[in-house]
Each structure stands twice: as structure tokens, then as C-alpha cells.
Design brief:
heterodimer; A: alpha/beta; Rossmann fold; 2 domains; seven-stranded mixed β-sheet; four-stranded antiparallel β-sheet; 8 helices; about 35% helix; B: about 250 residues; mainly alpha; MetI-like fold; two-stranded antiparallel sheet; about 80% helix
Chain lengths: ~260, ~250
Amino acid sequence: MTVVNATMAAGTAAVSVRGVSMIYPGPVQALQDIDLDFPAGQLTSLLGPSGCGKTTLLKIIAGLLEPAAGTVTVSGKTVKGPGPERAFVFQDFALLPWATVMRNVAFGLELRGVPTSEREAVAEKYIGDVGLRGFEQKYPHELSGGMRQRVGLARALAVKADVLLMDEPFSAVDEQTRRKFQEDLLQLVSVEKRTFIFVTHSIEEAVYLSARIVLLSPRPGKVWKIIEPKMPRELSPDQIRREPGYLDTVESIWQNLKDYVE
Amino acid sequence: MELYGHRIPMWASLGLWAVIWEIVGQAHVTILLPPLSACFMKLFEIVPTETFWSAMRITAQAFTLGMAVSILVGVPLGVVMGRSPLIDRLFLPWVSLFVSAPLTALVPVIMALFGFDETTIVLTVVLFAIWIIILDARAGSKGISPSLMEMATSYGATRWQAFIKIYLWAALPEILAGIRLGLVRAVKGVIIGQLLVSVIGFGYLFEIYSSNFLMEHMWALLLVLFFFAYLMDAGMGELERRIDYYSSVRG
């Protein structure tokens, strides 16, 4: 594992955050002067104890929240609101309960006015990619939590956004399902070549999934440390989880975060 | 309910009261209550008449029109009120006032403004039905989960798309509950309106029957109206059950 700088040389970052601060009424300083770069084509985790503003930062990047100060640029363009180059995966899935898996996955394209046959062809591909083939005509309430989040992920993939923003996507999914889902996500990251920004409070999850991990400290949320876990990715998932590089990274992050957990 | 180990079906109570009605009627206790069987016989006499069908037509027309106005105005207004604090503050005091006000007292005002014809009946239906529809639609759209709205925003939904594709559907269980309550009130509205106007529709018939002490006619007419009110309520109940599956999983 290596500790690296928050910012990178121009051109290699898909998403750049410069001087972002956020103040909630109270006033609570949720984020203070965040400078961060997210490398293209990789998965970066935002990790930290609750209240460190990781979800706030993700929603600012998504354009769902406006920062009190600072700017976010995605592929060189300044973010002024939500945009087609970013797609969001929600903690509670945020599916339409009255729509089938097919319509839910195609919903982003439906909003853009893509014709039915075209958007359903795209949706069908991604429904297959997330492992839900055969469930196209099911409704969300007929699926398990893990399968619902796969629908949420397929919806985000289907709009062909360069950047996928995932807000604790597995926190409402049970443990066994989560592991399988994590493995599938790693596979997707390597195939899809998109930029993933992933919020989590699970150290193991962050280390297992990420090319780099941004540790945030709470109140006010600041970038505290950036870690790039080094482990042999060619190993099987079970081998990785027993691998010294993996275990050491988990341990050292835990040592760092321990002070914040009373 | 169970009695001596036998299940008693719900409608048994109706049957019991029908028997009591028949006995009291046959005993000629009061002129106001003729036997149930006589009322039913009268039903077959009244229903085929031209007067009955013209009253039926006027009532159905006024009812449908009034309900349509109430839904087409009430549902969008309620949903928008639930989403926009400004519009909510503008309308909520009035809606809350009217939903519980003694509306019958306002019918003569409508009558004075719009005359003794169908317009008055339609407006009476709207006056009775619309408020609860607005309130329920408002409650439904207030309860839409924040993440569903964030989803709409982040996937680039326009306001119109969010309204048509998400808000209306997410609030549908409450909207239907409101329409069901509105229907019941609209039945009251359409009858009360006609009774007060009393020169058209069932109001005219009731006026003739009661002033001539034709109690069998009157009860027969009431049975018809009760039956239709029940049919409508049951129909809406069935519709609500069909979308029940997602009202519990909206999260």
C-alpha cells in the first residue's frame, strides 16, 4: 500500500474537486476545503466515519447539492447541476415500484426521449451484465434487496455515463449477497472502463474494491489520507481476502480511524 | 363472526334487518314504513318509467361531470401543493376550511348565482367532493421518498416528467383513497343539490313522493340510490386493492 497526493497531473483525472466547502444550516461545517482528483477508469472509495461528509461530497459531485465554495469539474467541464455524464446509484435503490425491471433500467433513457425499442435493447444488455437475465418483467417488490440494487446499478450503467457515483450501495444488502455483488462489481469495473466513485463506511469493502481510498476525517470533513491498496488482483476473491497486502491495508486504515470511534 | 361454531357471513346482518323491516311494515305500525316487499315491488313499477330514467340521466351526468372536474382540478392541485411550499400556503387554509365546513348551507348561494338547473348540481358535486381529493393528493405527494426525487433530478427529469412519471404514480395510493372518499361525498352532493333545487332529477321525484306521502315510492328510490353508492364504493375499493402491492413498498 502507498500513500499518495490528493491531486494529480492534468489530464489523468476524470473528476476534479477544488476547494469545496459545505456548510449546513446550524451552522455545521460538513466539508472544508476539499481538493481531490479521481482517476479515470478506476474505482475510488470515499471512506470515513459517519458524519465525515462523504455522502455530501458525492452529492456535490452529482450536482444534487450546491457547495458553499469551490468547484467540481467532470472531464474538464464545471458542474452546475446533474448531467448526462454522471449517473447515481442510491443507498435505498430509488426504484419505481410500479415499473418493471426493464422500465426501471431504461428509465434514464426514457427521460432523455430515447425510443422504446432502442432503450429496451440497451437495458436488456445491462440487465444481463448485472446478472438479472430472466427478471426483465418482474417488479421491484418481487426481488431481494441485492437484486434491487443490481437494477439500480444497471440503470446507472444504461445511461452510458462516464462517471458512476455510488452512495453506500451495499449497506441495505445482506452480507452473503454483498460479497457476491462486490465480486461482480470488480468484474464490471474492469470491463466497463468507467470512473466509479464509491461511498462506504466498510473498511473491508473499500480495500477490496478500490484502486484508491480517500480517508475523510469528520467535523469538519477534510481529506485526511489517500491510500492505494497494493494486492495481486489476479487472485481469486477468496485468496485476496486472505492476502497479507489486503489484510495489512485493512488493519492500517482501522488503526487510523480508531481515534474517531469512541 | 361466529355463533355456536357456525360462521355467520357479513350479509346475514342485512338479511336480519330486512326481516325486521318486513315484520314492522306488515304490522302497519306507521305509515312512514311500508313493508320491504312492497317497496321492492314498487321498484319494478318505478324503474321502467320515463321520469325515473330522466332523473337517473340528470343525476349520472351531473355526478360524472362534477367528479371529473374535482379529479382533474383536485389531483394536480393537491400534488403541486405537496411539493411547493408557496402554493401550499396559498391554498391550504381554504382547503382545510372547506373540507370540514357545513357545505349544504352554501348550496343556496350557488343556486342564487347559477340558477335552478344542472350547472348548480354539478357545482354542488364539486363543492362536496374536491376538498378531500386535494388533501389526499397533497398527503401522497408530501410522502414521496426524497431519494426518488433525487433520482428524478440526477437522471435529468424535467419538472413535467417528474410530475407525470413519478409524483402522480408515487402518490397514487393516497390519490385513489381521496377519490374514493370524494365519490362518497359527491353522492351526498348530487342528492342534496337536487333536493334543494327540487325541480329536476331525483330531487323532483322525492319532492313529489314525500308531499303525496308515497312512502313505498320513496323507499324504493332510496334503495336504488343506496345500491349505486355501494357499487361505486366497492369498485373503488377493488381498484385500490390492485395497486396495494406498491403502497407498502414505496420506502
